[in-house]
Write a structure and sequence with these properties.
single chain; 254 residues; alpha/beta; Rossmann fold; seven-stranded parallel sheet; 8 helices; 7 strands; 48% helix; 15% strand; globular; binds nicotinamide-adenine-dinucleotide; SDR_fam; Short-chain dehydrogenase/reductase SDR; oxidoreductase activity; SDR_DHRS6-like; oxidoreductase
Length: 254
């Protein structure tokens, strides 16, 4: 199996891409630490993994709160002694052009999507540095590199995550730690369903218009991104360092 015995922490894995990755990683032999803000959703992921015979535990934490993340990391280290892979996946959507966005909404998107990468990395890295081994996967988005309408706060955060990934890679390469970024296109998850509800009077018509900007002819599915995450988590990607990995079905315009 491709992740045999690896201890892998996935933030925001109670839903969508994180959940799909947790299921796939467990099928490949990993022990998955499922984290989410929402306890019920996280527990569901764990139950599904266990029902397939996989290994997983749930640890609730808010990735924006230092004490909460420190407790999460301490719990995992106390139980398993190490974290091989950290997947910084938790994130929230932000809809609106600059003039439409309230300062509080702006701050929350920045907080979850950037601070939520900084804090888990900050508390996990010393353990990886001590072992001189590790892989970190940061969730960016294709929006880091292409302009899409009314996504100001969200674009800003995902561009920041891509830049942060490259900066982190330089700092931690001497410790044999790889840091790469995933850049998905539009993936059909609860997050995109929420975006469709908030952005279109007719969400069905919105879905059809999102499909039209894909060379693939349809939106992606969480499994499509989970398979790319599996590659970054495994040793098969050992020559990838500070790299963006695109899984976007050929997004051509916004
Ligand atoms: P989702 O809403 O289905 O799942 C996100 C999960 O993160 C939820 O379970 C939520 O409870 C959790 N979460 C939110 N805030 C948290 C916090 N403070 N602490 C811990 N957990 C928290 O979304 P998804 O579509 O699976 O997105 C996952 C990641 O992929 C996000 O970073 C998103 O920006 C990114 N992404 C998604 C798409 C897409 O089209 N769906 C495209 C590119 C990138």
């Amino acid at each position: 199996m491709r992740l045999d015995g690896k201890i892998i922490l996935i933030t925001g894995s109670g839903s969508g891409i994180g959940k799909s990755s947790a299921l796939l990683f467990a099928r490949e032999g990993a022990v998955v630490i499922v984290n989410d803000l929402a306890e019920d959703k996280g527990q569901e992921t764990v139950e599904e993994i266990r029902s397939e015979g996989g290994q997983a535990v749930f640890v609730q934490a808010d990735v924006t709160k230092p004490e909460s993340v420190q407790r999460l990391v301490d719990t995992v280290i106390g139980t398993y002694g190490r974290i091989d892979v950290l997947f910084n996946n938790a994130g929230i959507s932000g809809v609106g052009a600059i003039h439409e966005v309230e300062p509080e909404q702006w701050d929350r998107v920045i907080e979850v999507n950037i601070r939520g990468v900084f804090l888990p990395s900050k508390y996990v890295l010393p353990h990886m540095m001590a072992r001189r081994e590790g892989s970190i996967i940061n969730m960016s988005s294709c929006i880091a590199e292409i302009g899409l309408a009314r996504r100001a706060s969200y674009s800003a955060t995902k561009g920041a995550v891509l830049a942060l990934t490259k900066s982190m890679q330089v700092d931690y390469a001497p410790y044999n730690i790889r840091v790469n970024a995933l850049l998905p296109g539009t993936i059909l998850t609860p997050f995109v369903e929420d975006y469709l509800r908030k952005s279109y009077d007719n969400p069905e018509a919105g879905y059809e218009s999102l499909k039209k900007r894909q060379l693939s002819g349809d939106l992606g599915r969480p499994e499509d991104v989970a398979k790319a995450a599996l590659f970054l988590a495994s040793d098969e990607s050992k020559f990838m360092m500070g790299s963006p990995l695109y899984i976007d079905g050929g997004v051509v315009f916004g």
